[in-house]
Amino acid sequence: MKLLTTCLALLALLEYVSAQTWYFLTFTTPAGAYISAYSGSFVAPPLPEAATYYLWPGLQPPDNAGVLQGVLDGRSGEWWIGDGYCCSNPSLAWGSGFNVPNGQTVDFSFSVDSIQDGTWGTTLSSSGGGAATGSFPLPTHPMNQAIMAIELYGVAWTFGQFAFSDVVIVANTTSTAWCTGGPYNYENAAVVSLSTPVATVSGGQTTCKIASIILVEPA
Protein backbone atom coordinates (compact mmCIF):
# COMPACT_ATOMS: atom_id res chain seq x y z
CA MET A 1 0.00 0.00 0.00
CA LYS A 2 1.17 3.52 -0.76
CA LEU A 3 1.37 5.94 2.13
CA LEU A 4 -1.60 8.17 2.71
CA THR A 5 -1.35 11.65 1.31
CA THR A 6 0.00 13.97 3.98
CA CYS A 7 -3.03 16.25 3.99
CA LEU A 8 -5.61 13.64 4.88
CA ALA A 9 -7.54 15.16 7.75
CA LEU A 10 -7.05 18.88 7.34
CA LEU A 11 -10.36 20.70 7.33
CA ALA A 12 -11.30 23.42 4.85
CA LEU A 13 -9.22 26.59 5.26
CA LEU A 14 -6.61 24.82 7.39
CA GLU A 15 -3.06 25.21 6.08
CA TYR A 16 -1.10 22.09 5.20
CA VAL A 17 1.39 20.79 7.76
CA SER A 18 3.06 17.40 7.93
CA ALA A 19 1.39 14.91 10.26
CA GLN A 20 3.82 14.02 13.00
CA THR A 21 2.38 10.69 14.05
CA TRP A 22 0.21 8.16 12.20
CA TYR A 23 -1.59 5.04 13.34
CA PHE A 24 -3.97 3.47 10.84
CA LEU A 25 -5.54 0.27 9.57
CA THR A 26 -6.53 -0.31 5.95
CA PHE A 27 -8.66 -2.86 4.11
CA THR A 28 -7.66 -2.69 0.42
CA THR A 29 -9.68 -4.33 -2.36
CA PRO A 30 -8.01 -6.15 -5.30
CA ALA A 31 -6.86 -4.22 -8.36
CA GLY A 32 -9.85 -3.04 -10.39
CA ALA A 33 -12.33 -3.64 -7.55
CA TYR A 34 -13.89 -0.76 -5.66
CA ILE A 35 -15.82 -0.07 -2.47
CA SER A 36 -19.46 0.97 -2.75
CA ALA A 37 -20.33 1.27 0.96
CA TYR A 38 -18.54 1.56 4.29
CA SER A 39 -20.26 1.89 7.64
CA GLY A 40 -19.89 1.22 11.34
CA SER A 41 -19.72 2.80 14.78
CA PHE A 42 -16.98 4.09 17.04
CA VAL A 43 -16.72 5.53 20.54
CA ALA A 44 -15.28 9.00 21.14
CA PRO A 45 -12.45 8.48 23.64
CA PRO A 46 -11.62 10.90 26.47
CA LEU A 47 -10.07 14.04 24.96
CA PRO A 48 -6.97 14.93 27.02
CA GLU A 49 -6.72 18.59 25.99
CA ALA A 50 -7.44 21.07 23.22
CA ALA A 51 -4.93 19.99 20.59
CA THR A 52 -4.70 18.66 17.06
CA TYR A 53 -6.14 15.18 17.41
CA TYR A 54 -7.81 13.80 14.28
CA LEU A 55 -9.49 10.39 14.60
CA TRP A 56 -11.43 9.11 11.64
CA PRO A 57 -12.81 6.43 9.35
CA GLY A 58 -12.37 7.18 5.67
CA LEU A 59 -12.03 6.02 2.08
CA GLN A 60 -9.16 6.54 -0.33
CA PRO A 61 -8.72 5.91 -4.09
CA PRO A 62 -5.90 3.83 -5.60
CA ASP A 63 -3.84 6.90 -6.56
CA ASN A 64 -4.11 8.31 -3.00
CA ALA A 65 -5.28 11.62 -4.49
CA GLY A 66 -7.26 12.48 -1.34
CA VAL A 67 -9.53 10.98 1.25
CA LEU A 68 -13.25 11.03 2.02
CA GLN A 69 -13.49 10.98 5.79
CA GLY A 70 -15.52 11.61 8.93
CA VAL A 71 -13.12 13.43 11.23
CA LEU A 72 -13.36 13.54 15.01
CA ASP A 73 -11.47 16.79 15.65
CA GLY A 74 -10.15 17.72 19.11
CA ARG A 75 -8.71 21.19 18.48
CA SER A 76 -11.41 23.12 20.37
CA GLY A 77 -11.11 21.06 23.56
CA GLU A 78 -14.34 19.20 22.77
CA TRP A 79 -14.67 16.63 20.03
CA TRP A 80 -16.35 17.86 16.84
CA ILE A 81 -17.14 15.62 13.88
CA GLY A 82 -17.96 16.31 10.25
CA ASP A 83 -17.53 14.66 6.85
CA GLY A 84 -15.37 16.02 4.06
CA TYR A 85 -13.03 15.30 1.17
CA CYS A 86 -9.44 16.37 1.66
CA CYS A 87 -7.69 18.07 0.17
CA SER A 88 -7.95 19.01 -3.52
CA ASN A 89 -8.61 17.67 -7.04
CA PRO A 90 -11.48 18.29 -6.63
CA SER A 91 -11.80 20.96 -3.97
CA LEU A 92 -15.12 20.34 -2.19
CA ALA A 93 -16.84 22.14 0.66
CA TRP A 94 -16.68 20.45 4.05
CA GLY A 95 -19.98 19.06 5.30
CA SER A 96 -21.87 20.03 8.43
CA GLY A 97 -21.04 18.53 11.82
CA PHE A 98 -21.69 18.49 15.55
CA ASN A 99 -19.96 18.20 18.92
CA VAL A 100 -19.44 14.77 20.46
CA PRO A 101 -18.97 14.45 24.23
CA ASN A 102 -16.43 11.92 25.50
CA GLY A 103 -17.78 8.38 25.54
CA GLN A 104 -20.59 8.90 23.04
CA THR A 105 -21.01 6.48 20.14
CA VAL A 106 -20.92 7.80 16.58
CA ASP A 107 -22.48 5.89 13.68
CA PHE A 108 -20.98 6.62 10.25
CA SER A 109 -21.88 5.66 6.71
CA PHE A 110 -20.36 6.29 3.28
CA SER A 111 -22.21 5.01 0.20
CA VAL A 112 -21.88 5.74 -3.49
CA ASP A 113 -24.82 5.94 -5.91
CA SER A 114 -22.77 4.08 -8.53
CA ILE A 115 -19.08 3.37 -9.02
CA GLN A 116 -19.28 5.09 -12.42
CA ASP A 117 -21.01 8.29 -11.28
CA GLY A 118 -19.10 8.51 -8.02
CA THR A 119 -21.34 10.73 -5.89
CA TRP A 120 -20.92 9.70 -2.27
CA GLY A 121 -23.60 10.21 0.35
CA THR A 122 -22.41 10.41 3.94
CA THR A 123 -24.23 10.27 7.27
CA LEU A 124 -23.13 10.77 10.84
CA SER A 125 -25.21 10.36 13.99
CA SER A 126 -24.39 10.14 17.68
CA SER A 127 -25.95 8.55 20.72
CA GLY A 128 -26.43 12.10 22.02
CA GLY A 129 -28.66 13.11 19.11
CA GLY A 130 -26.15 14.78 16.81
CA ALA A 131 -26.65 14.25 13.07
CA ALA A 132 -25.12 15.41 9.80
CA THR A 133 -25.27 14.42 6.13
CA GLY A 134 -23.18 15.24 3.10
CA SER A 135 -22.87 14.70 -0.64
CA PHE A 136 -19.51 14.53 -2.40
CA PRO A 137 -19.19 14.16 -6.21
CA LEU A 138 -15.99 12.22 -6.86
CA PRO A 139 -16.48 10.63 -10.29
CA THR A 140 -12.74 10.31 -11.00
CA HIS A 141 -11.90 8.79 -7.61
CA PRO A 142 -13.35 5.30 -7.14
CA MET A 143 -12.41 4.13 -3.65
CA ASN A 144 -10.45 0.97 -2.93
CA GLN A 145 -9.20 1.55 0.65
CA ALA A 146 -11.30 1.59 3.83
CA ILE A 147 -9.32 3.20 6.63
CA MET A 148 -9.48 3.65 10.41
CA ALA A 149 -6.96 6.28 11.47
CA ILE A 150 -5.42 8.22 14.32
CA GLU A 151 -3.60 11.33 13.08
CA LEU A 152 -1.73 13.41 15.64
CA TYR A 153 0.06 16.75 15.37
CA GLY A 154 2.43 17.54 18.21
CA VAL A 155 0.57 15.38 20.75
CA ALA A 156 0.83 11.77 21.88
CA TRP A 157 -1.71 8.95 21.91
CA THR A 158 -2.74 9.22 25.57
CA PHE A 159 -6.53 9.01 25.22
CA GLY A 160 -6.88 5.24 25.40
CA GLN A 161 -8.41 3.00 22.78
CA PHE A 162 -10.16 3.99 19.56
CA ALA A 163 -12.86 1.32 19.29
CA PHE A 164 -14.96 0.47 16.22
CA SER A 165 -17.87 -1.95 16.08
CA ASP A 166 -20.22 -3.43 13.45
CA VAL A 167 -17.97 -2.40 10.56
CA VAL A 168 -19.32 -3.30 7.10
CA ILE A 169 -17.45 -2.83 3.81
CA VAL A 170 -19.07 -3.69 0.46
CA ALA A 171 -17.00 -4.02 -2.74
CA ASN A 172 -17.72 -5.06 -6.34
CA THR A 173 -15.59 -8.19 -6.32
CA THR A 174 -16.08 -11.87 -5.55
CA SER A 175 -12.66 -12.01 -3.94
CA THR A 176 -12.79 -12.41 -0.16
CA ALA A 177 -9.10 -12.48 0.83
CA TRP A 178 -8.91 -8.68 1.12
CA CYS A 179 -11.46 -9.00 3.94
CA THR A 180 -10.63 -12.26 5.67
CA GLY A 181 -6.91 -11.51 5.67
CA GLY A 182 -7.54 -8.57 7.99
CA PRO A 183 -6.34 -4.98 7.69
CA TYR A 184 -2.89 -3.62 6.99
CA ASN A 185 -1.46 -2.09 10.19
CA TYR A 186 0.75 0.84 9.16
CA GLU A 187 4.30 0.11 10.33
CA ASN A 188 2.73 -2.14 12.99
CA ALA A 189 2.56 1.09 14.97
CA ALA A 190 -0.63 0.21 16.87
CA VAL A 191 -1.61 -2.67 19.11
CA VAL A 192 -4.83 -3.95 17.55
CA SER A 193 -7.65 -6.16 18.83
CA LEU A 194 -9.70 -7.58 15.96
CA SER A 195 -12.61 -9.98 15.74
CA THR A 196 -12.48 -12.40 12.82
CA PRO A 197 -13.65 -10.71 9.59
CA VAL A 198 -16.52 -12.51 7.85
CA ALA A 199 -16.97 -12.27 4.07
CA THR A 200 -20.09 -13.20 2.10
CA VAL A 201 -20.47 -13.10 -1.68
CA SER A 202 -23.72 -12.34 -3.48
CA GLY A 203 -24.54 -10.80 -6.85
CA GLY A 204 -20.92 -10.20 -7.74
CA GLN A 205 -20.28 -8.28 -4.51
CA THR A 206 -18.42 -9.14 -1.32
CA THR A 207 -19.69 -7.86 1.99
CA CYS A 208 -17.03 -7.78 4.67
CA LYS A 209 -18.23 -7.62 8.30
CA ILE A 210 -16.04 -7.07 11.36
CA ALA A 211 -17.82 -7.04 14.71
CA SER A 212 -15.01 -5.27 16.56
CA ILE A 213 -11.84 -3.42 15.57
CA ILE A 214 -9.92 -1.68 18.34
CA LEU A 215 -6.78 0.40 18.04
CA VAL A 216 -5.73 -0.29 21.62
CA GLU A 217 -2.52 1.67 22.17
CA PRO A 218 0.81 2.50 20.51
CA ALA A 219 2.93 -0.59 19.88
Question: Explain this structure to me?
Answer:
With 219 residues, this protein is mostly beta strands. The protein has one helix at 177-180, and strands at residues 21-28, 35-43, 52-60, 67-73, 79-86, 97-100, 105-112, 119-126, 131-137, 145-153, 162-171, 184-185, 190-194, 198-202, 205-218. Strands 2, 7, 8, 9, 11, 13, 14 and 15 form an 8-stranded antiparallel beta sheet that branches. The chain is globular, with a radius of gyration of 16 Å.
Q: Give the strand tally.
A: 15
Number of domains: 1
Number of helices: 1
C-alpha end-to-end distance: 20 Å
Q: What value does the average pLDDT take?
A: 91
What characteristics describe this protein?
219 residues, Jelly Rolls, seven-stranded antiparallel β-sheet, 1 helix, globular, disordered N terminus, signal
Summarize the structure.
The chain has one helix and 15 strands; from the N terminus they run E-E-E-E-E-E-E-E-E-E-E-H-E-E-E-E. By secondary structure, the chain is mostly beta strands. It has one domain (21-218): Jelly Rolls (Sandwich), CATH 2.60.120.
How would the blueprint of this fold be written?
Layout: E1 21-28, E2 35-43, E3 52-60, E4 67-73, E5 79-86, E6 97-100, E7 105-112, E8 119-126, E9 131-137, E10 145-153, E11 162-171, H1 177-180, E12 184-185, E13 190-194, E14 198-202, E15 205-218
Antiparallel strand pairs: 1-10, 1-12, 2-7, 2-11, 3-4, 3-10, 4-5, 5-6, 7-8, 8-9, 11-15, 13-15, 14-15
